[in-house]
Design brief:
Blueprint: H1 2-23, H2 29-40, H3 42-107, E1 115-124, E2 133-136, E3 149-151, E4 156-163, E5 168-172, E6 180-184, E7 190-195, E8 201-204, E9 217-220, E10 237-245, E11 254-259, E12 268-274
Antiparallel strand pairs: 1-2, 1-12, 2-5, 3-4, 3-12, 4-5, 6-7, 6-9, 7-8, 8-11, 9-10, 10-11
Helix pairs in contact: 1-2, 1-3
Length: about 280
C-alpha cells in the first residue's frame, strides 16, 4: 500500500514539474532543480505519459467520430437540397413543351379575342380512369372564375367547376355531366359532345342525313347570342372523329371522338377568362 502511495506521489510531482518547466525561465536555480528532478523522475514522466495516452487516444477517437457524424449530417442535407433542385428542374423541363404549345395556341388566329389567358400548372392530375377532374395552381386571386373554359396547347380540356383563392378544380370533357356544343370543321354539322355509355366521347344528335366521316375535326360551336352565351367560345379544337356508324332503329348517327388533349397527362393548362365582365 505504501509503495503505491509513493508511486502516485512521484507521478504527481513529475506532472507538477512538467507544468512548471513550461512556465519558468530557461535559466536559474529553479531550472537547475527542475533539471535534476526531471532526471530522477524521468521514468515516472514516461509512465505518466503512457498512462495518459490511451485516454488521449480515446478522446481523439470520440471527437473525430462526432465530427465525422456532423460532416455526414451536413453532407446529407446538401444532397437532399440538390435532389430537390434536380426534381424541380426536371418538373420545369417536363412542363416546358406544354407551355410552348400553349403559347402557340394563344398566337393562333382562331384564338377567341374576347378572352385572356391564365397559364398555370396542373398540381393534381386525374386520380384514375374513373376520375374526371384535375386541380390547377391558379384561383380567384389570379382572376379564375366558375365556368371558365380550360384548354391545353392541343385543345379543349374542360371547365372550371370550383374555385379557391389559390387553386381551382377543372371538370374534364370526359365527365358524364359534361356537354359541349361542337361543330364539324369540314361539313359544318353541329352536335352535342358528351361521354357515351361505353365511356368514350361521342358527338350526339347528328341526324342520319348529315355527312360526317372518320378523320373530321371538331371545334367548339359557340354562340353569337348575347342573351344566351355559350360557356365555350367558338373555335376551340376538341378532337377527331374516329368512327361513324348508323343503325336502322337509331335516329342519330353514332359518332365517336378522340380528344386532341391528352387528358390523362396534363402538365400545364390555360384558363380562358372573359375580358368583358358579366358573361
Amino acid at each position: 500500500m505504501i509503495r503505491r502511495l509513493i508511486v502516485v506521489g512521484l507521478v504527481i510531482v513529475a506532472l507538477a514539474l512538467i507544468t512548471i518547466a513550461f512556465r519558468s525561465p530557461t535559466s536559474g536555480a529553479l531550472h537547475s532543480v527542475q533539471g535534476a528532478g526531471s532526471t530522477v523522475l524521468r521514468p515516472f514522466q514516461i509512465a505518466a505519459t503512457r498512462i495518459a495516452q490511451p485516454f488521449r487516444d480515446a478522446y481523439d477517437y470520440v471527437d473525430g467520430l462526432a465530427n465525422a457524424r456532423a460532416d455526414l449530417k451536413r453532407q446529407k442535407e446538401i444532397d437532399r437540397q440538390l435532389r430537390a433542385k434536380d426534381l424541380q428542374r426536371a418538373a420545369e423541363a417536363a412542363r416546358y413543351p406544354a407551355l410552348v404549345k400553349l403559347l402557340h395556341f394563344e398566337q393562333n388566329p382562331t384564338f377567341p379575342n374576347d378572352f385572356s389567358t391564365v397559364n398555370t400548372a396542373v398540381i393534381s392530375p386525374p386520380g384514375g380512369p374513373f376520375a374526371h377532374s384535375i386541380v390547377i395552381e391558379a384561383g380567384s386571386s389570379s382572376g379564375v372564375r366558375l365556368d371558365d373554359p380550360v384548354v391545353s396547347g392541343d385543345g379543349l380540356v374542360g371547365i372550371v367547376s370550383n374555385v379557391s383563392p389559390s387553386t381551382a378544380k377543372v371538370t374534364l370533357l370526359t365527365d358524364p355531366n359534361s356537354f359541349v356544343a361542337a361543330r364539324d370543321v369540314d361539313t359544318q354539322v353541329r352536335g352535342m359532345l358528351h361521354t357515351g355509355t361505353s365511356g368514350t366521347l361521342i358527338l350526339d344528335q347528328v341526324q342520319k342525313q348529315f355527312r360526317v366521316k372518320k378523320g373530321d375535326k371538331l371545334l367548339t360551336a359557340g354562340t353569337h347570342s348575347a342573351r344566351y352565351p355559350d360557356l365555350y367560345p367558338y373555335g376551340i379544337p376538341i378532337g377527331t372523329v374516329t368512327s361513324v356508324n348508323a343503325t336502322d332503329t337509331a335516329i342519330f348517327l353514332q359518332v365517336q371522338v378522340q380528344p386532341f388533349a391528352d387528358l390523362g397527362s396534363l402538365d400545364a393548362v390555360a384558363v380562358l377568362v372573359p375580358k368583358k365582365p358579366g358573361r
